[in-house]
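Reopening this one. Same input as before:
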Amino acid sequence: MSNANLLTDNPDLYEARFPDPRRLAGRWAEDCLRRHDAGQRVLDMGCGTGRDAAHLHGVGRAVTGADLSEAMLAYARTRYPGPEYVRADLHGFDLGQDAFDAVVCLDSSLLYCHTNDQLDGFLASCRQGLAPGGLLVAEMRNGAYFLGRTDLLDTPTVNGFTWQGTAYRSTTTLTVDRTAQLLRRTRVWTSDDGLPPVEQRSAWRLLFPQELRYVLAAHGFEVLELHDGPGPRTEPPWAEGELPGRTADADRLHVVARLSTSH
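Same output, byte for byte:
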């Protein structure tokens, strides 16, 4: 069994496994930007295949998509042209002083900041890159959901789909590492093409709503919205015109924060 990131190394497969034909994530992000009068210059940090960056570009924004995966960036440049795509590490990046009016960080990308130093590095980089009054829009798992709940931990999640004539099956097991405050994920891929199984290991930081408010304030951000839905990955999903909720109890967390005008 090999250890690899099958989805990151195969962006086509990623989009087949996680389709978003209605571009819910991009539309939700644009709704947040529009409601809070964000400027046109947007950084999509952790842009992956580029489909959300391309949506924001398509509605008239000047978008830079940033990711650490060269495979994802190469795919994005070909499949979703329009935005500028650059390689950058969300733990610390310098893409110019006051270069953006908003930073968008979707699909739990922010939770790859596993340590406090990494989270500080991300927010310090956002502070440097954002113009005064700029927005941070983020969507992620909600650490608070795992306080007393085990439904996502009790049994592995199995998904199957066919891509380019090959049937794939993924078995995902989640465990909570309370000491490191991480949600650890083990995903085993099998396929009917005779190749050996592939095992992926990754983790997300479990951030809690009040903890997130505190660290954002420490970096000069005012939280405008912090809620569990509706959003692009909630059930039911966000729909055009829906306003943010007031609770932070379900398994997703949505944040809009504004950088101080005097940073």
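So the earlier flakiness isn't reproducible anymore. For the record, Helices lie at 6-9, 11-17, 24-35, 51-58, 70-79, 116-129, 209-218.
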